[in-house]
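HUMAN: Can I see a protein plus its fold?

ASSISTANT:
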Amino acid sequence: MAHAATLSRAIALFRAFLREQSDPDAFYGALAADTVGQLADHVSLDGATVVDVGGGPGYYARAFAAAGATYVGLDPDAGVLGTSGTGALTVRASGTELPVRSASVDVCFSSNVLEHVRSPWIFAAEMVRVTRPGGTVYLAFTPWLSPWGGHETAPWHYLGGRRALRYRRRHGREPKNRFGESLFPVTVGAVLRWARRSPDVELVATFPRYHPWWAAWIIAVPILREFASWNAVVVLRRS
């Protein structure tokens, strides 16, 4: 059954997002189930081998297991690796040097990691490398100019990434995401240019991740998409 990208679904995700800081399990659990359904529109997950680059606490492990996939989570921080009780394999690894054989997995997946990588094109190329011919790459990220581009330091990022100082003044602590160290300005346009120029993939779909289906046109409009997509998805097929 096709993923139901309805307005009510978008509203439910936004309401869950408002609790992201106070109740991350609720938000990320709901997001994982929704995203796996979204991905299933483009590839059959039953029996597929999925590598989740930047899998972190393992919110996606349960959702992929429920879809019948064999899940492997990779993350550079061993302290956050988890499997949500599924017993799935997790490995400490860098997204720019994946310890995975070339052309060996059915799906290479990454959710909201690209903007935290100093070398995003190496990261994306590694995802393509490990995916088998005919396999699928799902890459979702937060554009820098979206309302959440600065993450918890938003909206001060609109005045420049260094404006995180205002976060420290307001909350009395350092932000989790530090501009230039663990948060970098990635744009939708740059990711689409990379995808279209890459000789090893074809662009299957691109859309605003949380929006209802009738708002998908936003991603096709330069400048507007950087602000209004909120979170962007690029789906690629390995050639």
In short: The CA atoms of residues 10 and 211 lie 6 Å apart. The two ends are 26 Å apart (CA to CA).
